[in-house]
Amino acid sequence: MSDYLTGIKEFLNSEVIPLEQENLPYSELLVKLIDLRDQVKSAGWWLPQLPGEVGGMGLSLEQFGPISEILGGCPYGHFVFNCQAPDAGNMEILIEHGTPEQKEKYLQPLLKGDIRSCFAMTEPDTAGSNPILLATTATADGDDYVINGHKWFASSADGAEFAIVMLQTDPENENVHQRASQIIVPMNIPGIEFVRNIPIMGVAGEGYFSHGELKFNNVRVPKSSILGSEGAGFSIAQDRLGPGRIHHCMRWIGICERAFGMMCERAMSREISPGKSLATKQTIQNWIAESRAEINASRLMVLDAANRIDTVGAHKAKVEISTIKFFVSNVLMNVLDRAIQVHGALGITSDTLLSHWYTHERGARIYDGADEVHKSNVAREILKSY
Amino acid sequence: MSDYLTGIKEFLNSEVIPLEQENLPYSELLVKLIDLRDQVKSAGWWLPQLPGEVGGMGLSLEQFGPISEILGGCPYGHFVFNCQAPDAGNMEILIEHGTPEQKEKYLQPLLKGDIRSCFAMTEPDTAGSNPILLATTATADGDDYVINGHKWFASSADGAEFAIVMLQTDPENENVHQRASQIIVPMNIPGIEFVRNIPIMGVAGEGYFSHGELKFNNVRVPKSSILGSEGAGFSIAQDRLGPGRIHHCMRWIGICERAFGMMCERAMSREISPGKSLATKQTIQNWIAESRAEINASRLMVLDAANRIDTVGAHKAKVEISTIKFFVSNVLMNVLDRAIQVHGALGITSDTLLSHWYTHERGARIYDGADEVHKSNVAREILKSY
Amino acid sequence: MSDYLTGIKEFLNSEVIPLEQENLPYSELLVKLIDLRDQVKSAGWWLPQLPGEVGGMGLSLEQFGPISEILGGCPYGHFVFNCQAPDAGNMEILIEHGTPEQKEKYLQPLLKGDIRSCFAMTEPDTAGSNPILLATTATADGDDYVINGHKWFASSADGAEFAIVMLQTDPENENVHQRASQIIVPMNIPGIEFVRNIPIMGVAGEGYFSHGELKFNNVRVPKSSILGSEGAGFSIAQDRLGPGRIHHCMRWIGICERAFGMMCERAMSREISPGKSLATKQTIQNWIAESRAEINASRLMVLDAANRIDTVGAHKAKVEISTIKFFVSNVLMNVLDRAIQVHGALGITSDTLLSHWYTHERGARIYDGADEVHKSNVAREILKSY
Amino acid sequence: MSDYLTGIKEFLNSEVIPLEQENLPYSELLVKLIDLRDQVKSAGWWLPQLPGEVGGMGLSLEQFGPISEILGGCPYGHFVFNCQAPDAGNMEILIEHGTPEQKEKYLQPLLKGDIRSCFAMTEPDTAGSNPILLATTATADGDDYVINGHKWFASSADGAEFAIVMLQTDPENENVHQRASQIIVPMNIPGIEFVRNIPIMGVAGEGYFSHGELKFNNVRVPKSSILGSEGAGFSIAQDRLGPGRIHHCMRWIGICERAFGMMCERAMSREISPGKSLATKQTIQNWIAESRAEINASRLMVLDAANRIDTVGAHKAKVEISTIKFFVSNVLMNVLDRAIQVHGALGITSDTLLSHWYTHERGARIYDGADEVHKSNVAREILKSY
Q1: Which of B127, B281, B363 is nearest residue A272 as measured by Cβ atoms?
Q2: Inter-chain contact D127–C366, Cβ cutoff 8 Å?
Q3: Mode of pairing for the β-strands spanning A209-222 and A144-155
Q4: If contacts are CB pairs under 8 Å, which of residues 334-373 in chain D contact chain C?
Q5: pLDDT of residue B2
Q6: Which of B273, B349, B375, B376 would best serve as a mutation to test chain A binding (most A beta carbons within 10 A)?
Q7: Which residue of C has its CA nearest to B296?
Q8: Distance of alpha carbon A256 from alpha carbon A263, whole angstroms
Q9: Alpha helices of chain A — where are they, by DSSP H?
Q10: D286 — contact with chain B (CB < 8 Å)?
Q11: Which helix (H) or strand (E) segment is C185 a member of?
Q12: Phi, psi of A335, rounded to the nearest 5 degrees
């Protein structure tokens, strides 16, 4: 294990994970997390996902993978290193497609960790799997766009400085993939209605730990707010998904490893008859072995996909990227489910992180393209050679 | 469908289910639910699980099954009919094992719906699968028992008038099945420490909709509080489990049917491309067909088990009772999981009941004996003939 | 259990099952099986699937179910009772749709057990799931039809007296469901090319235990050979499938029960360490419990479907009939697979019947409509109400 | 892909795979396969699994993996390259533990491909999972051992020159792992009773393609026939298993890839309605995507395990070696099962290789330690750290 990996792991264990037990109100927690960021910067681990030019660690995606896994073991990990979704994706978009002014105004403070942002793509009333259904629109009006629409699952919108909004600028374009654009919208301008933080399986969250529902009622932004060019919305979104999926998948593997450890500890420590632990039951052993196999498979596949993105580009790694999406999200569910079952009644309480993940990560099989969509895509891509 | 089934179904649809949308505070909801009980009584549907002698509908268990299914479709259903856990089980125990005084004091108000009760068996520190590990004790002291111990998952303890507590009265008895007893403990006496309503997957609930954690610190009750006799704790608990499992399983099937309906409606109404619904996708069709098969199988098996309990008694129906426990609890998880996936992002929000069930019914595979324990029991019982 | 069920079970155990061990050449086996038919007739069990008018037991489909289950436990069971596929289905067609001459010539000897028949529907080159692709044709020529086509999986064609052939008589009919007809074709007339008994997973079989591949090269039959009327092919085929599926499913359940018994016996008798049997392993216990649950579910569902066919007709029982097809075929595979695994190396040999069923029943998920087709049909039927 | 991999793949496609269609009698096939060995030798691909010193390709295990995968795509592949089981394992044992005389007499002709051998470990009457149950014994008698016992699943025993026999030499040794030894036994000496080639799922096979059942009736061999030393039987067997499992797993992956290709081709070529192929069905797409994911996962895990054996030794790679055993064997079954289902009726015939693999590779979940044993071993090993 590289030196920095060891260091990061120790830092996470000693400084970040202990905060989980404190059950602090969000505002107090945030102060502590932001304090920890100074240590991360001093250690040279800030922005581990980004190139050196913008102040990152300068690692390949394959090298970043293991960091994301370690950080994923704690719900606060990515935030402390400033590689949290959705900011990490937004940084990538701005680096790749932002104008100098956009970079100055939005990218720089993001890189410093001074602000947060959100990404508003999903809509409650249209199927995300089909981009041509997108109902949010930006209509040109003089030097401005006027935006109308209804978005939700804009993660971390609560407290974000700006949103990158996916919408239709040319809804009649025959080339359906050129209908959409991405536009930067400050969150504090007129017409943005913050409906609510959506309760996810009973818990609404707050600030960074939330998913916002937003309405755009005649929101007016200057045309210079567009990212890339009009009609580039989908191609930018596609670019964002490849590395984003590696981030997510490695984070999920981090969760898996932590849940796996909890499962093993519980199996060893829970007495089922005098002197005999739960670990002696063959069913529990099966679950441990199957989880080990599935987690190992996941990690190898994600790193392999990262390597392909690094070497041949995300476009040529399409099959691998879609494959890990549905494979790892299901492994995550399996491992969490088994870990809960091994914990018995404790497993369904909020006394361990297992139920947090069970509820908050159920979306893994849905967001960024439902598993079912990815499976069909993989098959269609493969069948092209037959 | 019998007349009363039709009537109950219509009543549930028109009077009870609409309350789900109102999101009332618990106290207001409770008032409304209690009001509805009058209609249930007038209609002759009160206590559908109990014999006519105690004011019930006088149905067999097999006949009660379909009622429990209908009521299970709404989280408030059983409560309105006064057949909710854990009161229904406690009523059965009191009917079967209560002294005239116990019946007068505890059973009568339960039957009338004037009070609620709880059942304190599970302990955080001992494995429920092994009764000899039970750590709560009642020590004889003059005419009293002095109770010490730590219980949790005492469902609906918050606001309960009394608890039936499972504990050891004779921890050294060589016959391990005679070590335990069940004792009635009023909830308002000294030494009962109400620790908390346990948060289940992030949500703690309140009153009837809660699971309590309790400590018993030198709680003193008269010896007349014992149910049946000293050492009868396990046999009473066993008696309780057979019919209780039919209640639960039919309730789960009710949830399945409601989730199934939601899945079908969503599949038909969700547009994935202009004029084409989600229901045209073969994967969705597979889930609908598989869910239909599994739910049908569940219902037939549970009614068959109920029929066996009715005709040959719970003891001889052991295999069937354990079989439905693990079979139906898994069908419930499958159906809920598929319904959520069909709902996409909406499925993981609290905007539908799906996430409520997904979190609050995850315990189905754990409580009343983990599935794994039941499977071993079924196999051992079957293998006796080989 | 009814008297005749007990009698049939005993007869099967004492007279039929012992033949399995003798490994007789087909011709010798056949003699023995035919001899046993006399006992069946004397006992009043002949043609258990048919009404009294044609010499059967006069049972409802639901009553016949348990007989089919018992007989299914032995590969020779149905044959000895003259309720074997495909003759049983052909008898039904002839009873329902045959002319007096057809009944005299074909039905009577079938009922007596004097001849065997086959059913030629499946074609190697067209997908059975889509009837409009059917490539075999009968062209009218004077008073005759001239038949050309290529069929396979005509079970028991080897030695059959006649075939009922499904083919297109009106391939251009706009109503695709009226293009096909069923025609009786004697097997000994010119133009019928018996290509081979198809090797199924390595074993070709012989006579009754075979699946024929046939070519029809200008085969000429009189027009009076048609069943029902021109264009009635599909509706006749549909009629045949409902009860046929009950027969198959109950037969599969019979196989399941026998394999289940073998699994239990092996688990108890196989020593894995001195004094400790394989049955002590929890994984084995899980398999036994899960198999028990799945077999029970299967039986209840099939009998329920049979009851619906008996009471409301096959057409209204469509969902139930398709549901059992895919549910029970998968249970069959699960149970066989587990039983093999419990037998270890012995399980993959031909020394037990397990491998026979594993290979010869794999088709259960394919024939009479692949599971996948049935699932889509079930979903589409259900979704009509949404 | 390395040059030799490309070359081997082309050679397999052009020279070896075509033989599959010829359905030659075993003796004729053998001649052709042996002829092909000359081309392999000339190309420098002989003994790809062995070091250069003994005439092999001198590759690491991780490098050999992809060769084994390519060869595994054809049932004759490994044989033509002289890396077939059980000879490959026997060569390893002889290289590692053979005396100069043993090497001269047995190893040299094996390396040249002049003879074949077999390995007799499994016994019909004792559970292979527990070595202390081994019932075959070698009793010292003067300068000889006298061997008695009953073995089966001695693969390729039919025509083998010698067997390596696992047996007890010191059945009372308190250290149970020192009771067994491995002894070389020529197949043509008195007392060896060749019972039969065991029919596997209906097919007995012949010569190299067979699994023998053998009895040893007072078979007498000189003491110099022992491998390593008395009591070393288990440690030798353990050594053999690590690399052997890589060989098997990579071979299984080769089968998976070939079956995967067949599945894709069938999906594209099978018309289900005019102009519409089976590949348009989402269920088929799911199977293709899931198979792709599972096969990729398998390959990465096996190569990772091979790399660990290469770098830290088989002993420290225990978890990885056991993990791939159960993971890949199940992937193999999944992929074959899906490929068969996609082929419909054709899939269960012997007209494609699918049914050959379905039957002959079902043992993969049983031999070399049943999956269930490996899972428990993996769990126990992992739990040591908790």
Answers
A1: B127
A2: no
A3: antiparallel
A4: 340-341, 344-351, 355-356, 358-359, 362-363, 365-367, 370-372
A5: 79
A6: B349
A7: C301
A8: 10
A9: 3-11, 26-43, 61-72, 77-80, 87-97, 100-102, 108-112, 233-269, 282-312, 318-343, 345-348, 354-360, 371-383
A10: yes
A11: strand C180-186
A12: -65, -45
Task: Give D268's contacts in chain A (Cβ within 8 Å).
Answer: 383, 386
**Cα(B272)–Cα(B260) distance, rounded to whole angstroms?**
20
- Per-residue model confidence as pLDDT tens digits over B35-83: 999 999 999 999 999 999 999 999 999 999 999 999 999 999 999 999 9
Side chain identity at residue B231, one-letter code:
G
Question: How many beta-carbon pairs under 8 angstroms link A with B?
Answer: 133
**Are the Cβ atoms of D283 and B281 closer than 8 angstroms?**
no
Q: Contacts of residue D286 in chain B, CB cutoff 8 Å?
A: 283
Residue count of chain C:
386
- Report which residue type is found at D32: K
Amino acid at D254: G
Bond into C86 cis (ω within 30): yes
Contact B202 A203 (CB under 8 A): yes
The enclosing H or E element of C371 equals: helix C371-383
Of D285, D293, D323, the CB nearest to A292: D323
Tell which residue, B262, D282, B287, has the closest CA to residue B270.
Answer: B262
Q: pLDDT tens digits, residue range A285-335?
A: 999 999 999 999 999 999 999 999 999 999 999 999 999 999 999 999 999
**In whole angstroms, what is the distance from residue B346 CA to residue B352 CA?**
8
The amino acid occupying position C162 is F
Determine the Cα angle at B140 with ends B136 and B141, to 5°: 125
Chain A, window 254-273: residues with a beta carbon less than 8 angstroms from a chain D beta carbon = 264-265, 267-268
Return the minimum-mean-pLDDT range out of A234-248, C268-282, D135-149: A234-248
CA-derived radius of gyration, chain D: 21
d(CA B39, CA B18): 16
Task: Say if residue A29's pLDDT is above 70.
Answer: yes
Q: Does B383 touch chain C (CB under 8 A)?
A: yes
Tokens encoding D144: 């000889």
Q: How many CB pairs under 8 A join B and C?
A: 119
Domains located in chain C, CATH noted: 3-98 (1.10.540.10), 117-227 (2.40.110.10), 235-383 (1.20.140.10)
Q: Scanning every residue of chain D, which has its alpha carbon at the shortest distance from the alpha carbon of A293?
A: D323
Q: Does A129 touch chain D (CB under 8 A)?
A: no
Residues 300-329 of D with CB under 8 A from C: none
How far apart (Å, rounded) are the C-alpha atoms in residues A193 and A188? 10
What mean pLDDT value characterizes chain B?
A: 96
Query: Which residue, among A144, A145, A141, A165, has the nearest Cα to A214 in the 3D structure?
Result: A165
A129 touches chain B (CB under 8 A): yes
The one-letter amino acid code at B195 reads V
ipTM of the complex: 0.97
Distance separating alpha carbons of residues C281 and D376, to the nearest angstrom: 11
Q: d(Cα B167, Cα B123) in Å, to the nearest integer?
A: 10
Q: Rounded to a whole number, what is the distance in Å from the CA of D309 to chain C's nearest CA?
A: 28
Please answer whether residues D85 and D92 qualify as being in contact, where contact means their C-beta atoms are separated by less than 8 angstroms: no
Read off φ and ψ for residue C300, nearest 5 degrees: -60, -40
Question: What's the CA gap between B97 and B94, in Å, rounded?
Answer: 5
Where do the DSSP E strands lie in chain D? Answer: 117-120, 137-141, 144-155, 162-168, 180-186, 192-197, 205-206, 209-222, 226-227, 271-273, 276-277
Q: Which of C272, C281, C282 to mutate to probe the A interface, most A CBs <10 Å?
A: C282
**Whole-angstrom Cα distance, residue D262 to residue D259?**
5
Sort out which chain C residues have CB atoms less than 8 A from B284's CB and list them.
379
D331/D291 Cα distance (integer angstroms): 8
Q: Omega before C131 cis (within 30°)? A: no
